[in-house]
Amino acid sequence: MSTVLTTEDIRNLRTGAHFLTCTIDPTAIHIYAEMIQRAMEDRALELITVDELSPDDLVVAVGMVTQGLFIADMPPVGDEFLGCIRAIEASLGRSVRAIYSLAAANINGIVPLMVGLQSSLPVIDSDPMGRVFPLISQTTLNIGNVAIGPIALMGVTGERAVVEVESPQRAETLVRALVTELGGWAATAMYPCSAQQLKEHGVHGSISRMIRIGQILDASTAVERKLLLLADLLGATRIARARVSHIESLSRPTDLGLPAQPSSVTLEDETTGRIVRLEIQNEILLVLVDGAVTAAVPDMVTLLNSEQGTVVNIDDVQVGDVIDIVKITAAAQWYTDAGLDLTEPKAFGIPIAHPRRRDA
Amino acid sequence: MRVGLRLQGTSCRTVVMNGRNVVSAAREVHAGSLSEALASSLSMLRREFGSGITEITADVGRVLGERKLADVVAIRISPRPPADAFHMTVLPPLVEPAVTQTMHVRGGHDLRGRPLARLDLEAFLADLPGILAGDVRNVAITSVGSTASKDHETRIADAILSNDRDMRISISSDFYSSVFRDRDYTAILNSALMETGEELAAMLEEAGRRQFPATHLSFAKNDGGRAPLSRLGVAPVHGLRAEPAMGILGAATLAGIPEGEVILCMEGGASVGHTRGGLPVARSLIRQGFDASLASNAAVLEPYTVHHPVRADIPSVIADLRERQESELPFGLVPTLPAVKDAALVGSAAAPLTAWIDRLETVSGRVDLKRVQNLAEEDAHSAAVQLGASPGQTRILESNVYAMPYGNPGIVRIRVQAAGETSADGEYVLPAAARGTNP
Amino acid sequence: MRRSKNETRLDVAGLLAHGSLRSTTPLYLTPSSGLIESVVLVSQLEAIRQVRPNTVVVLSSEMGSGGWLVSAALRHAWERRASAVVVAGSAYASAAVGLAERLGITLLATDGEPAALALALAAEIGAALSVVDAELARVARTVAKDTTLGDVLKTISRELDGFAVSLGYDGVVLASAGMPPRETDEVVTVEAGEANSAVRFTLTARVPASGVHNLRLVRSILEVATPAVKAAWLLEDLLSTARAVPTAAISGLDQDSAASGAEFGEKHRHLLNQLGWREGEPYVAVWFRSGQVQEHRPELTAVLRLLWRKVTVRSPLAEVQGGWLTLVPAGDQDASTQLETRIRTRLGPALAELGLVGGLSRWQEDTPALVLIVREARLAAESARSTGPGTVLGFAGLGVVAATTFVDRDAVALVAELTLPRLMASPDRDVIITAVAVFLDHRGSVSLAAKFLNLHRNTLQARLNRARELGVPLDIPSELLSVHLIAEVLRRSMPDKTTSEDLIENEKGLP
Q: Rounded to whole angstroms, how far apart are CA atoms C467 and C383?
């Protein structure tokens, strides 16, 4: 069912996109939210479900791929995504009918709305991750053998590239290298596929879910009430309410193929005495409670301020802070063997199998 | 003895401290002008305490906040200018009117410090006479990637200064934020405050020289430290919101808790801060809702809520800073330091010299990381010494390395705080161990 | 590898105060000092899930020391009731101190190499098996440097403090090194190779039973050394095969058994010269073959070569059609006799165990052609089969009797079945045949034969008459040789039972 989004929706979406990737500086999300709200003053923004399209309609994922430069440190000038969509259309000789988010959180959870406003293309309430992952190969479309290419990229300098590639793993390598040299981030359009393919292999309700999360978190209700509502909506569980006792960086050598350096946070649950450890590599990959694996990627783990129920940025975490650690189950596709192969801790260089692996 | 002093409107309020003891309770002088009030206050202090006054630290935050911002030309350096109005950098409403002109210059660096585009100095030089011909004397320069390379910002600044030495220039690489619009906003605000900063510095300098020729004069900063007056004209933005930091430091000083929790109860409600190593715990940005953040290391003071966890093992001070103390404190709080509405002045009197190093480094491994971290600590140490601290009285309070989310492997942010005292004032520093994590 | 003679139990506090943990930094110590019974050096987190209680878990350096890893290791160690966790470097472990305290498990940091610490600790608690990864890798590296089997065995023995190590095949000791312990010993044996593999053997160590050695480590050392043993053995065998080519050639060239030595020498003179054989040099040929007609076991060549070294190392042993051949220089009759004695004493039991027999050629003054002494040795070996595995016969002590060895017993038995059906069907067949055979052995003398069989002369006479009734032509001189042959063959094929019953009867008859 097609929905015309309101500026209120965008405000909530901003919070939801941040909630699902608590470790990331939300500035870029805010910048985009503002931009979208201003643009919405004279244009309507339409959110559609994938069912509203013809099965053959060409749809394409739009999203930022970053490597080295924060989007907030060099906001796009505005023509990048339109250029990418045009490049995909030129490459395939077909018109793009609708766009969808590359990821259902963080900047890429919100960027497509701006692109939708600029291009007048409808935005599909679906995505290929159901959360955000650092690699463009970590998608449910990849599990479903949907081709990632051709990929169109445009960087901060206005330089562009179209990468003709089939293997998502190769695409990751090539795109990552290109993005570094394009300046640190690139606007991209990838996974051009039919609406039918997205319907079969995508994760659905991504954007409306973020809006709903924002409604819960931005309401002036008690933290406990928010947690209850989140549990209903997402099956979110609070792993612990704990006080930060130690923060460290670079705790473990990281594979150069992974786009970041990790750090860890140790917390103590003052009620039970349990000791909680978060392993972070862009996002929280692993939660150990008293040394036992309690959550591991692809599970989503997010931090909430225990007093206000607002999302905590990992950058802002200080020793002494009391934080609610919340675990959210990812899309079901990620817990299949193929899904875990792509996204369990081992894929991030942590030699631990996900607890839900049948053979684990 | 040390003096904490606050300027506001046309008044000057002072507290005299000896060690941790208040020697002379707050006195406020109102006069026809701010400089008269200041002169009168200092004259009184001289009569009473003579040369016993060794340090005077002025909190000028309220004056900086109440003066109209000076007009600023904003120069932004990036590979390409915004393609549409939506993609323009948006400034907070308070500062936005101060920017009378914006200029785009092609240039900028990536996070590795490599140029994204050649700096288009020729185009800029062609436009420069137009800027210089106007009335605006304040310029803010912000470049993409200036956390990694300040080259383009300094070349533009040099180009301006070589044509007009009297321009006040603020460059964004003096302030650490990974967000362009934060640095842009901070450089613009700093630039808009420089004139006021210079005036205040000159006024304090002159009054001080007359009454206390041998005394160090400083201004209070929002990290809970102080800096020599000479810095006020250059980086006034750090003095803008000193009062909360000074409140935390003052309450902690009076209570004698260099490591602990400080709850400040004010008219607007209760707030919580923390001290570590004898100074308020600081954050590198002052957030302002969803607007751009101010890239200035500032004490963290957050609202006290009903969910606030109470811990027996952490010393805590509850200070009642309200003008009138008739009503009960919120949340059933009971003050451990009653009626200390001048806690912030006590903090100003106690504030040590502080210096920050906050920068990106490219490291090849753990050993290299240790090396650049040591280097940053040495730099912070010598920065504090340059501000006037005695080397023997200077210590590292915080030394942290941050991984950069989604950054290039090997690029880390290193943030170090050093604090020190002039040799005569060592006993004022709260005893505490250094803090920070050293991986 | 050695365990402290002190049998008092070790604990964390003791080893921290004056033991191998002295060099570690305690990050957290449990209030009561934990017992230490073993140590394990882990390079994978999962390995901690297998440790026994009261184990010190040492995280290897390649595992890293990230805080999460230390946390997870502490958790696993706690679940297994380990006594302590040792990590490399203290930097990242500091965050885990709280967890160690919470779980009540000692956490130690070492600035040194964790593997070295684990070894030192293992030395103290005698649980070196736990660190076999490190210790055995060293042993493996050491033995891998040795190229000869003797050196490999010596090295293994040295690792076992000089105690005996032996290489065995089917219960036969092929080679050994080191001294067996004087006291009662513990025997540790590992088997190598599948039943069908080229080299199948056992390595056996004998160490004192007093408990100084950790038997599991001894076993592990043997296991680790096995590939080196195999490699050295195969290498030596390969070299021996090459050296044995000239020997093999002589047997291989001797296809025409009718040719005389001179003819053979004439025909192949050039080639023999090329192979290094010189006319007029005196040799004794030694031929080994299996005692029964059975499947060929290819690995026996390698085995036999090792055994042969106990006799001499200079003459290579060649695998040839129908057995193994070697030519040993022998300057005089004494040398030849000594050789035969050495083979009997040193190899006899082993040959018996392996089901092999041996034959030697005669020593002759006039240095006969090599091919002739080879034929002699072969004949001697074939003759030896009749006496059973382990027999070593010299052709000199054999003479024409050797001819009987070549009788086709099955054919003779068949002839008997066809020509003497009544005898073969008779219930007292075996008694009659024995009587006939012994009678003929004694050149037709009833008295001598009866004496030999310890029978009354009349009894024997009655049995011989019975034989005549059953169709045995005892009175036709031209057929006597054949009868004798048949009787001998049938007697050999008799069940042992009969023989022993006879013997018992005979014993009863003794005064």
A: 30
